Amino acid sequence: MSIAHGIKRLGVLGAGQMGTGIAFVSALHAKVPVLLHDKSAHQISKGLSLIDKLLAKDVSKGRLQPSDAAEARARIQTVDALRSHARSVTENLDLKRAIFRDFAAKIRPDAILATNTSSISITKIAGAVIPEGASAAGEVGKAVSGRVVGRCLKVCIFSIPVPVMKLVELISAVQTSQDTLDRSRAFAEACGKEVATSQDVPGFVSNALLMPFINEGVATRDDIDKTFRLGMAHPMGPLQLGDIGLDTCLSIQQTLYKGTSDSKYRPSVLLERMVDAQYLGKKSGRGFYEYND
After folding, report:
1. Contact 248, 88 (CB under 8 A)
2. pTM of the model
């Protein structure tokens, strides 16, 4: 059977909330084999446990047949080393460049290199995969860098939590080929997602709009979030949304401010102090809100 995206196997580097979610929707909806890697055995175990819980929940709710759940789970395998396609690791440009440079030298030439990021330039990552001695304007340089694409998985590009959020924000680097974009869109749609596209600018669409709301201390926490829920029909307010990871929010704001010099993106002192205190949101048990479970 012909598959529009042409992806026959997906590799995911990082078994955190994002990587696990991508593995889940890819195996369940796109029905492709997934190779999941993380340097932490504990994180792998935690990620697989979450996948099992999500599948069991869908079966219990009648949204999924037990046989379909078993088939989806069987498509996900863990590996000690990964030479494949997608990656979901920390928001660190130097780390992403190093990983993509290594991947580009080892994987097959028609494989797509996709990064999940909230704010890092896809163009800078694509530039790093060009082999030493090759020209960015030459055929080799264009072919290698042209297969790099960004997915702003959102709080948001696969949006967090990936199994629930419908959005994938697709970002094209200056070098990204049309074939890479078309195949990436087709794959996201096969995963059951809606696709929005963005230029490779700081914050892309979602975070360029969201982050200033987290900075504006114009009212109490509850009143800010209530205004967004009841006055703008948002499912949650920006501070509750930010509690998915305040350290990530701070990193995004720092990148936005550095990239634009626009004061609306300058991180607030309160956010910096909260991160210093390890008040990171849900994952630490306390952020703008407190979490007991």
Report:
1. no
2. 0.81
Integer Cα distance of 94 and 195 in angstroms: 28
pLDDT at residue 71, as a whole number: 97
Could you tell me the two tokens for 34? 């997934």
CA distance 201 to 124: 11
Cβ atoms within 10 Å of 80's Cβ, excluding its own: 7
Query: Regarding beta strands 148-152 and 167-172, do their DSSP bridges make them parallel or antiparallel, or are they unpaired?
Result: antiparallel
Q: Residues in the chain with pLDDT < 50?
A: 1-2, 83-88, 153-157
Please state, in angstroms and rounded to a whole number, the distance separating the CA atoms of residues 201 and 2: 34
- Are 186 and 211 within 8 A, CB to CB? no
Residues in the chain: 293
In this predicted structure, what is the pLDDT of residue 152?
A: 54
Which candidate, 286, 154, 284, places its Cα nearest to that of 221? Answer: 286
**138 and 132 Cβ atoms separated by less than 8 Å:** no
State residue 240 phi and psi, 5-degree precision. -65, -40
Q: Is 190 helix (H, G, I), strand (E, B) or coil?
A: helix
> What are the structure tokens assigned to 16, written together?
């955190």
